Amino acid sequence: MAQEEQVLVIPRKELEKVGIFHGLMMDTDKYLNSIFAPGVPRFMPRSLAEKDPSFKQIIPYVLMACDGRYLSYVRGKRAGETRLVGNRSIGIGGHINPTDDMALFGDFYETYLNAVKREVEEEVTVGTTFTNQIVALLNDDSNEVGSVHLGVVHLWTLDAPEVARREQMITQMTFMSLPELRAAQDTLETWSALCLGYLDTLAASK
């Protein structure tokens, strides 16, 4: 019998202590210091985390930009999160799971950053150099998926538009301009639609 997936979570009450918000929050340092404080992050079975809004699953959400265009794709039928199948996305990422080299009692923030790199590499191959910056936190309690997740929005600024898919769930992958994304806004998953409204601000903050 396969072992159940464990995912990184924080208690919702820890987020509420700092200040609950809807949409994107640019004051990242204040929240990251609380989210990754000793004793706050933990792993729990995904089946429980998906049904318990008293915990927030930490999800890296990596936006990739090059020359004013943003990587975009449609989630195919093999997507791990079936509730998002068929939606267009501008974010790459997924759940953070425990691995052999993760120091469970060490610096969870460094653990997280290492895990982000692994998560992205599972889905796409980036064939160019880039800068990586955390630009926002993302929270949306208005729907079933959002109520149990907290996004950490990264902006990877690529030196060339060289990205290839690795995961079969990624389809129709292309770089799109802001006008093109705005024209396709009705097809975007919720988190991508929220990020779209802030892309000018996010790009200016790098």
Overall body shape: globular
**What class do helices, strands and sheet pairing give?**
alpha+beta
Number of helices: 7
- Low-confidence runs of at least 5 consecutive residues: none
Main sheet characteristics: 9 strands, mixed
Structural Rg = 16 Å
Distance from first to last alpha carbon: 46 Å
**Count of extended strands:** 11
**Proportion of strand residues:** 25-35%
Kindly state the mean pLDDT as a whole number? 88
User: What is the helix/strand order?
Assistant: EHEHEHEEEHEEEEEHHH
| Estimated helix fraction | 25-40%
How would you characterize this protein structure?
Helix content is 27%, strand content 33%. The strands form two sheets. Strands 1, 2, 3, 4, 5, 6, 8, 9 and 11 form a nine-stranded mixed sheet that branches. The protein has a two-stranded antiparallel sheet with strand order 7-10. The protein is of the alpha+beta class and 206 residues long. The protein contains seven helices and eleven strands. The longest helix has 16 residues, at 108-123.
